[in-house]
Design brief:
Elements: H1 13-24, E1 40-46, E2 53-59, E3 62-63, E4 66-70, H2 81-88, E5 91-96, E6 99-107, H3 110-123, H4 126-133, E7 140-145
Antiparallel strand pairs: 1-2, 1-5, 3-4, 4-7, 5-6, 6-7
Length: 150
């Protein structure tokens, strides 16, 4: 079931503009990360504290109908805000091009995290540099299709 509620735009102007352009165009516009040409998806979460809908463009890391989202924050010492949203509310929406579906997020560890981390670095090599910049282990979540309601 799609997430519902009031939209809380990002305080980052470029992030807000990218997510909104991507959604408004059905994934045709703003579909790559800035000047890289690498594809992005838009993740919609429910704010852990605010309860508002939050939209974030993230790198597209897909395998067999499941997606990884990487809480890198460019190698900053703190997790991005959306990390806390996923922990509090693991039901999310993901838009990949025109397709928009419900998923359930699960933080990975051990061998499963390493497998998805390798996929993420293959999709977006700077993730490896981000890990070198920070002492925290960058969290990786897998998004699996939400069970059908009914």
């Amino acid at each position: 079931m799609p997430l519902q509620g009031e939209y809380g735009p990002s305080t980052s102007a470029w992030a807000r503009a990218q997510a909104e352009a991507y959604e408004a165009s059905g994934g045709r516009d703003a579909a790559t990360l800035r000047d890289t040409g690498l594809p992005v998806i838009v993740l919609t979460t429910l704010g852990a504290k605010s309860g508002l809908l939050r939209k974030t463009a993230l790198m597209r890391v897909e395998h067999d109908g499941r997606y990884a989202v990487v809480a890198s924050r460019g190698g900053a010492p703190e997790h991005p805000q959306w990390y806390w949203n996923l922990l509090a509310h693991p039901h999310v929406e993901l838009q990949d091009g025109e397709a928009r579906h419900d998923y359930v997020a699960r933080e990975l560890s051990g061998a499963e995290r390493e497998e998805w981390w390798a996929r993420a670095v293959a999709a977006y090599p700077p993730y490896a540099d981000y890990q070198e910049r920070t002492s925290r282990v960058i969290p990786v979540f897998v998004l699996e299709p939400a069970p059908a309601e009914g």
